[in-house]
Amino acid sequence: MKLSLEAYENIVGPSVIQQLCRLGEKLKDTRVVHINSTREGGGVAEILMWMVPLMQDIGIDTCWEVIKGNTEFFTITKSIHNGLQGEPVVIKKKDWDTYFEINAQNFQELKEILTEADIVVIHDPQPAPLLSLCPERKGKWIWRAHIDISHPFRPVWKALKPFVEKFDASIFSMNQFAQPLPHDQFLVAPSIDPLSDKNIELTPLELESVRAEYDLDLQRPLLVQISRFDRFKDPIGVIQAYRLVRKIIPAQLVLAGGGASDDPEGKEVMEEVLEAAENDPDIHILLLPPNAHRTINALQRLADIIIQKSTKEGFGLTVTEGLWKGKPVIGGDVGGIQRQVIDNHTGFLVNTPEGAAHWIRFLLHHPGRMKEMGKTAQEFVRENFLLTRHLREYLTLILFLLRKGKTHTILV
Ligand code: UDP
């Protein structure tokens, strides 16, 4: 489907759309390339799915390329990812060599497009070495980190930093993630597309069909966490919290998530989760296909409370999605979740399963409060975390980089 900006006018108002069109005119025919490591699964793919067509719609010559790699490569890049999020991982010299070598192979395929582009946006660490491989580049290169690198495991950051410092700018989702780097660093929060299958309003009929498919009982409270099966998402902690709630309230829990092609750890983590669930018929562990957007949408809408009990989180689009659906979110007190879950307004931040259970019980005992928080949550997302704000910040940043050092003023 070709996305058009006009479709969002009813949600964000005409002036927001006009401003984006004006920015688009200033960037007409600019060649922008986004590079990441998976076309589906995870927040980056979710964002690029709307961002690329919308940038095209306003006249920017935008494309999205995905680097290829084998299991060895993605096991190494998952270790780099985990290391950047603070885990003391072991990455040997030969692993870093493989990481570089696979990037070099990808560069051969992408050489022309990367050399000619006016702007290249490299998402996350997997494709970060491409810049070092492109000495003839014409454009400006941005490193966009989507993960929580506030306290990286030092040896990993030390090895990655030489690739990152060559960029012209980097973008982070939180102030705390900024690093000592020799270029400009920008703060841009991610966002959701309110008209995508993941977030659009669904009919009662569609909600009922998902309810029936997974045998959920709407007479009893439903807690939902949607996440890749990743230890930083703390699915085991969610089960512990659910068990504490269950001592008092007959709640049900859905833990739903598929894999991402650049995340080889998912299967192992899912097995740990299945074991922890001990065949409890009220814990629904769902392995969803990558295109299960409407199912996830329905599960979030059927939920009474959304949980995202991460112990590290770059931003947490699942939090945004839950808030947008008018649900309070119980979120881990980390990273980008802190930007979205405002204690006692849009949900509660927690550090332990006990804390999560406490606030889940509080909300379930105060349905009026829960409803009120849900309304605040949706307005909070409308103001801060919809794609139009995100697009405006990207376009302004691109204009800034292209005109840096020139005397133009950027008026939008
Ligand atoms: N998601 C999905 N299928 C899944 C699990 C997650 O489509 O099985 C989506 C989820 O709805 C959200 C994104 O993937 O849009 C996850 O983004 P988030 O920032 O929460 O976490 P990440 O996976 O990027 O760490």
Report on the architecture of this protein:
The protein is an alpha/beta fold. The protein has 2 domains: 5-191 and 387-403, Rossmann fold (3-Layer(aba) Sandwich); 204-384, Glycogen Phosphorylase B (Rossmann fold), CATH 3.40.50. Helix content is 45%, strand content 14%. It has a 6-stranded parallel β-sheet, sandwiched between helices. Strands 9-8-7-10-11-12 form a 6-stranded parallel β-sheet, sandwiched between helices. Helix 2 runs parallel beside helix 15, helix 4 crosses helix 5 and helix 7 packs across helix 10 (293-302). It is globular. The two termini are 29 Å apart. 47% of the residues are buried. The model has no long low-confidence stretch (mean pLDDT 95). The protein binds uridine-5'-diphosphate.
Overall structural class, as computed from helix and strand content, comes to alpha/beta
Question: What is the CATH T-level topology of the largest domain?
Answer: Rossmann fold
Which CATH class of the largest domain?
A: Alpha Beta
Coarse morphology: globular
What's the helix-strand series?
HHEHEHHEEHEEHEHEHEHEHEHEHHH
Low-confidence stretches: none
Q: Determine the oligomeric state from the structure.
A: single chain
Topology:
Elements: H1 9-12, H2 14-26, E1 31-36, H3 43-57, E2 61-66, H4 71-84, H5 93-116, E3 119-123, E4 140-144, H6 154-164, E5 169-172, E6 184-187, H7 204-213, E7 222-226, H8 235-246, E8 252-257, H9 266-277, E9 283-287, H10 293-302, E10 305-308, H11 317-324, E11 329-332, H12 337-340, E12 347-350, H13 353-365, H14 367-384, H15 387-403
Parallel strand pairs: 1-2, 1-3, 3-4, 4-5, 5-6, 7-8, 7-10, 8-9, 10-11, 11-12
The protein binds uridine-5'-diphosphate.
